[in-house]
Design a protein that fits this description.
The structure is a homodimer of 320-residue chains. Chain A has 320 residues and is of the alpha/beta class. Helix content of chain A is 38%, strand content 22%.
């Protein structure tokens, strides 16, 4: 059985034909046009290209923002600047193929459950470290979405009450300290105190310091990078303490661009997380790197369809 | 349909015959004997007293500690000092009546869903403020227990990274700041700075200051009490921010002994909680006082049976 997985971003639309094992048969990336009608048309055209040849049984779309997955409505997307767009129905009509839509972080955790690091797990917490921090939770085999479909938002837990101001208006959210952009910002802020940092030699212009540079410099023993990475890992460990105690997961998956450096920070997070949880939870979970990485978006989107076909969707009352 | 609900504590066993509407037909409290065999015998005797007359269809036991509700095993109970006791089977054998056991905080949230402030809700967060802080979560209509049955532990989220040392070994857990005993401890600690506090006149001996006294003094405008209550409410608000963003609940129920003063601190928590969550979550939930209060233990225990009879228990894989 094959489906079309669509990773809908503000700049690009990435699409792929994926089967239930996660094999990819076709892949295409196009620019995101302006306006939801044009975006729906573009996705429908991509679907029509492959529907017959691959016998596509459904289209799954993952996109950032607040999604009512039950009604298939994009409530609010800051990236696309949409409000209350009944997008799934629109694509279903234009393509003739049943379309499902879900928040991209929720799609990510579904993708890891179907095809990635959380295969066979019924209790999974997943985080994507990118410009922001997205999160999704599978509990007792199913996605936690909450009564309005806007859960589980894991990146805005307060880990440092008087910490940096976050875009959401709170202070000291995990996202304000541990997203890829926050890591870069912290390093640049503190450069004035560590003017000998090798990071200055690693880039042409100090403005080009990004999370990747920080983690590279950490591996080489740079002091500023060490301070930043330890500070960030401690903040992540504090959030992990909450995730573990609330959801009692088997596995916590770290994804997103910054997960390419997960081999550096996972051991640091593992080391400190026990400080932030009851003893009975210590050793009950694993922290692992996403197995999907580059394909996380399209495979996550594809898994939305498989999840819906398997369980028939999740109604407001939790029954199928 | 009637069941026997049993609230098993370290000092007393409280039992009641309860129907699915929450009506109580019979009630009895006895002292908790030493040793799990004697406790099982005592509960079985209570069951045998009422089984025929009330046509009891099951026994539900709520107790503090780590419970494997699926196997009916008390993994670890600090109050009773038990480890790995297959208690539900023991009571089933002695009484001839099918027995279920669950952690008391999980029983509490089930009780509020079946009979209390969360009737008809599918997404509920519940906290009990007592000597410690217990918590339970219903998501998509079902209890979240996690892969080992030890979730959702809500009271040990870190709300102040360098805060007071908690019994669990962490610093600044919600429990270390906002449990009834923490509220009393904070007031007594700070008395030396506020020697004019009216709390000193409200009790014979300053050691007798408890949470109730603090909230009474707050209502009368006492400065120290105001500082304690505002500090505690802010800590609770920070935790509420996490609960709301993770679970997107319709309702958050505050119970336990300290909930008798909930009319004082709920408005304070409501006022500050928006500081600690993304704007999209503001206004999506209600915070309410437990409706069961005195009977929360026995009604919660009774609801364990109704929940199991309705859904047939919850297997490890989330299927029924």
């Amino acid at each position: 059985m094959k489906v079309l997985g669509v990773d809908l971003g503000g700049t690009y639309i990435k699409a792929a034909v994926v089967n239930e094992k996660g094999d990819i048969f076709w892949k295409k990336t196009v620019e995101t046009p302006a306006g939801y009608e044009a975006v729906a048309e573009t996705i429908a055209q991509l679907a029509l290209e492959v529907i017959e040849k691959h016998e596509i049984v459904g289209v799954g779309i993952g996109t950032p923002g607040s999604i009512d997955h039950e009604k298939g409505v994009v409530r609010y997307s800051p990236n696309l600047k949409w409000r209350d767009v009944p997008f799934a129905d629109l694509v279903t009509k234009k393509s003739g193929c049943k379309t499902y839509i879900e928040n991209d972080a929720n799609a990510f955790v579904l993708g890891e459950k179907w095809f990635g690091a959380a295969r066979g797990c019924e209790h999974v917490v997943a985080l994507t470290f990118g410009t922001g921090i997205g999160g999704g939770v599978i509990s007792h085999g199913r996605l936690i979405t909450g009564h309005m479909g806007i859960g589980a938002e894991l990146g805005h837990i307060i880990v440092e009450p008087y910490g940096p101001l976050c875009g959401c208006g709170s202070r000291g959210c995990l996202e304000s300290i541990a997203s890829a952009s926050a890591v870069a910002r912290l390093a640049k802020q503190w450069l004035v105190k560590y003017p000998g940092s090798m990071m200055l030699e690693m880039v042409e212009d100090e403005e080009r310091i990004d999370a990747r540079v920080v983690f590279e410099a950490y591996k080489k023993g740079d002091l500023l990078a060490t301070i930043v990475v330890e500070y960030v890992s401690d903040a992540i460990a504090r959030a992990v303490g909450a995730y573990v105690q609330f959801f009692n997961p088997e596995v916590i998956v770290f994804g997103g661009g910054m997960a390419r450096s997960a081999d550096v920070f996972i051991p640091l997070v593992e080391r400190r997380a026990p400080l932030y949880m009851m003893p009975s939870f210590v050793g009950t979970y694993r922290i692992v790197k996403s197995e999907l990485l580059e394909d996380a978006g399209i495979k996550g989107a594809a898994s939305i369809v498989f999840e819906n076909l398997k369980y028939g969707g999740r109604g407001k009352n939790g029954t199928e």
